[in-house]
Specification:
Blueprint (H helix, E strand, L loop, with lengths): L3 H42 L11 H7 L3 H21 L1 H8 L5 H5 L1 H30 L8 H43 L4 E3 L2 E3 L3 H8 L1
Antiparallel strand pairs: 1-2
Helix pairs in contact: 3-6, 4-6, 6-7
């Protein structure tokens, strides 16, 4: 007849064995999740255009804890797209609306407002980049994931940020110049005339000033 002591002697190894199998299952699950996430990064995220896709419920389940890694990429992409839509899109629309000299006057107020919003846009983009860089730097990723993630990060975050950095100041200068042209035409009042989609000034000096 087995005593309590002999039962405990057999029970302890069994528990240890079950724990090993349990931990092994967790590791295998994480490996599968990481593999699925790497595949998604390579075949979907890297091939996406300006806007990264939103994860489906099934994908979130497949990727497990790596959903938070993707959130860094997706969050930055969303912030930039929203900032661009609200900050740069109005500038493009107003510039495209200028077809004849009269349009400089009609578009100068929208351009003046858009010029001010560009300063806000620059700050939003800078904050988004700093936030993404901090989150990216804090990641602890396996060797099979890190290089792939870093490649996507460069495509989604680093390259666009570097491209946008000089674009915003240039857009501010350009819009300010367009506003100044509109202001100049308005200041001339009835001295100018608009003929055949062109503009005529009474003096060559005024015409030269307009063309600067």
């Amino acid at each position: 007849m087995a005593t309590g002591k002999s039962c405990s002697r057999w029970f302890a190894p069994v528990v240890a064995l079950l724990m090993v199998f349990s931990l092994s299952g967790c590791f295998d699950k994480e490996g599968d999740q990481r593999k699925a996430f790497v595949d998604f990064l390579q075949n979907t995220a890297m091939r996406s255009g300006e806007r990264l896709p939103t994860l489906t419920a099934d994908q979130k389940k497949q990727f497990g804890p790596f959903v938070s890694d993707y959130a860094i990429l997706y969050g930055y992409s969303q912030q930039v797209n929203q900032a661009m839509d609200s900050g740069l899109r109005p500038v493009v629309d107003s510039v495209n609306a200028i077809r004849v000299p009269q349009d400089y006057m009609t578009q100068r107020e929208p351009l003046r407002q858009a010029n001010g919003s560009l300063g806000v846009l620059a700050q939003q983009l800078q904050n988004a980049k700093l936030q993404a860089d901090a989150a990216h730097g804090a990641l602890k990723q396996a060797d099979d994931l890190k290089p792939v993630f870093d490649q996507v990060y460069k495509k989604v975050v680093t390259v666009p940020a570097d491209a946008l950095q000089p674009l915003i100041p240039a857009a501010q200068i350009f819009t300010q110049q367009l506003v100044q042209v509109g202001d100049y035409i308005a200041q001339q009042g009835e001295q100018v005339s608009f003929v055949a989609n062109g503009i005529q000034f009474p003096t060559s000096q005024q015409a030269s000033q307009y063309k600067r």
